[in-house]
Amino acid sequence: MPLLLIFTLFALLDFVILFSVGSNIGLLTTLGLVLATGFAGLYLIRREGTAALSRARQRMELGELPSSELLTGAALIFGGALLLAPGFLSDALGFLCVIPGARRLLARLLAAAHVRLQVMAARRDGKGPGQADGWQQARGEQAGKDRGHGPGQYDNGERPLEGDFISRDETSR
After folding, report:
1. Based on the number of CB atoms within 10 Å of its own CB, is 38 exposed (0-12), middle (13-18) or buried (19 or more)?
2. Where does the pLDDT of residue 120 fall: very low under 50, low under 70, confident under 90, or very high at 90 and above?
3. Which residue from 84, 48, 93 is spatially nearest to 69, judged by alpha carbons?
4. How open is the CA angle 126-132-136, to the nearest 5 degrees?
5. Cα 136 to Cα 140: distance, rounded to the nearest angstrom
6. Phi, psi torsion values for 138, nearest 5 degrees
7. Cα distance between residue 112 and residue 116, in whole Å
8. How many CB atoms lie within 10 A of CB 44?
9. Which of 164, 163, 137 is CA-nearest to residue 151?
């Protein structure tokens, strides 16, 4: 529900700005600017998308996962959708997603906002920093009981990590 509200307010604000600017500079000038930003955005998306695709191919040929290229592609698709929408606010946000330097800045801002939202949610839920969720605590307590050890009864005071491992002598599959 909050996402729908944010989307609706963004669209309304975008149209208010478009109509305000349009009433000051005229209809033909406004249409020209909207079309020009759309074409410029499509050109940038095509150029940046081709570059991101070639970088992804290179990384896949090296046997690496092209995660940053996939995120770049997602940002380009989102930016392209915003640039095709009529409005100056959506165009500005679309250009932030398409221009490489601005895209990195936007990613840092979103990462910082995401961390802040996680901290606020943890405080709201009554958990302090570093406290685990209830399912993690229950699983850990049960694992300690299964082995006959209680919490903190290990040599170094920490619980061992559980999971699969590959010995250095063993060849990878």
Report:
1. middle
2. confident
3. 48
4. 130
5. 6
6. -65, -40
7. 6
8. 20
9. 137
166 Ramachandran zone, left/alpha/beta (phi>0; psi -120 to 50) = beta
**58-117 pLDDT, tens per residue?**
988 988 888 888 888 888 888 888 888 889 999 999 888 888 888 888 878 878 887 777
Measure the N-to-C terminal CA separation of the chain; round to a whole number of Å. 46
- Cβ atoms within 10 Å, residue 140: 14
pTM for the structure as a whole = 0.59
Residue for token pair 């992804």: 56
- Name the residue with tokens 């729908």: 4
3-state secondary structure the chain: CHHHHHHHHHHHHHHHHHHHHHHHHCHHHHHHHHHHHHHHHHHHHHHHHHHHHHHHHHHHHCCCCCHHHHHHHHHHHHHHHHHHCCCHHHHHHHHHHHCHHHHHHHHHHHHHHHHHHHHHHHHHCCCCCCCCCHHHHHHHHHHHHHCCCCCCCCCCCCCCCCCCCCCCCCCCC
Is 48:75 a contact under the CB 8 Å cutoff? no
